[in-house]
Automatic annotation (TrEMBL):
Native source species: Boletus edulis BED1
EC number(s) reported in the record: 3.5.1.89
PANTHER family: N-ACETYLGLUCOSAMINYL-PHOSPHATIDYLINOSITOL DE-N-ACETYLASE (PTHR12993:SF11), N-ACETYLGLUCOSAMINYL-PHOSPHATIDYLINOSITOL DE-N-ACETYLASE-RELATED (PTHR12993)
EC top class, as a word: hydrolase
SUPFAM superfamilies from the UniProt entry: LmbE-like
GO molecular function: N-acetylglucosaminylphosphatidylinositol deacetylase activity
Name under which the protein is recorded: N-acetylglucosaminylphosphatidylinositol deacetylase
Annotated keywords: Signal
Length: 277
């Protein structure tokens, strides 16, 4: 029993200390891996550090050196703090290491921060098109259709990104001569795992080891899900970025950064089709 417990403890501590990533290449443009240009598409100032920090911080250190961009589709004006929140976002992105020339915030009348408002996919597609095309974006990273927190602004985003990808695909004269971005969604996990916080890296690492063992038996390549996990340093960076959002620092945010899985782990799946009925 004791050796097992010791092994578990070592695994636990090491999984907190070292960041680890599995299938990270899935997100990169493999043929031109040095030329990956990755856009993080968010809805509000603070999404970048509350949900996406493990990925952004991992990509920043990735050996393929992808260029990282950030596009936020509202200034988060639901409570009237929009102008201040724009500044907070800028300071947060400074902490997360996204270049000043690579980040934008949009304030569009049809894309306003609102808890009850779904954003129109075609409006999103039109608004993001120039940023994607002009910057030769190869990969768009955004929420999935559950939006982590079920915020309608969040879960509208994959539909908009997918819409744009389809428009560009239809326009591309031939697949190789025109960059059609691939779209990836951050996976919304069930409620209980969402607040596993610091335990999440452990269970994720166990899962990966198990997966590797299973793959050996089944000769498969495993799933094509990319996972980014923060180590302690990255976690602290994400918390520092969150602290720049001073208008958002209410007591429940502290609970969130303490217990949320998304402060430690991001799982990604590629969007291959999306339809709204
Ligand atoms: C990317 O760049 C590195 C260093 O410049 C080089 O060693 C590597 O082969 C390049 N990879 C590709 C796929 O071009
Ligand atoms: C949010 O949207 C709803 C429905 O469109 C609207 O009635 C409400 O006034 C909006 N709230 C804010 C804060 O803009
Ligand atoms: Zn948000």
């Amino acid at each position: 029993m004791l050796p097992w417990l010791t092994a578990l403890l070592v695994l636990f501590v090491s999984s907190l200390y070292f960041p680890f990533h599995s299938n990270s290449h899935v997100l990169l443009d493999q043929a031109r891996s040095n030329a990956s240009r990755i856009l993080l598409l968010t809805a509000h100032p603070d999404d970048e550090c509350l949900f996406f920090a493990p990925t952004v911080l991992a990509l920043r250190e990735h050996p393929a050196h992808p260029e990282i961009f950030s596009l936020t589709l509202s200034i988060g004006n639901a409570a009237g703090f929009g102008e201040v929140r724009k500044e907070e976002l800028s300071r947060s992105l400074d902490v997360m290491g996204i270049d000043q020339d690579n980040r934008w915030v949009v304030d569009h009348p049809m894309l306003q921060d609102n808890m009850t408002l779904e954003w129109d996919a075609s409006v999103i597609a039109v608004v993001i098109a120039p940023y994607v095309v002009d910057n030769h974006i190869t990969t768009i990273l955004t929420f999935d259709t559950q939006g982590i927190s079920s915020h309608p602004n969040h879960y509208s985003l994959p539909f908009g990104a997918w819409d744009l990808a389809n428009i560009l695909r239809a326009k591309a004269p031939e697949p190789t001569s025109f960059s059609v971005p691939r779209v990836f969604s951050l996976v919304t996990v069930p409620l209980l795992s969402k607040y596993a916080g610091v335990l999440a890296p452990l269970s994720s690492r166990m899962n990966m080891i198990l997966q590797r063992v299973l793959n050996r038996f089944t000769q498969s390549d495993g799933n094509q899900q990319a996972v980014f996990t923060s180590g302690f340093t990255q976690y602290v960076t994400a918390v520092r970025a969150m602290q720049k959002h001073t208008t958002q620092l209410e007591w429940f945010r502290y609970l969130y950064v303490t217990f949320s899985r998304y402060m430690w782990i991001n799982d990604w799946v590629e969007v291959k089709s999306l339809g709204k009925n």
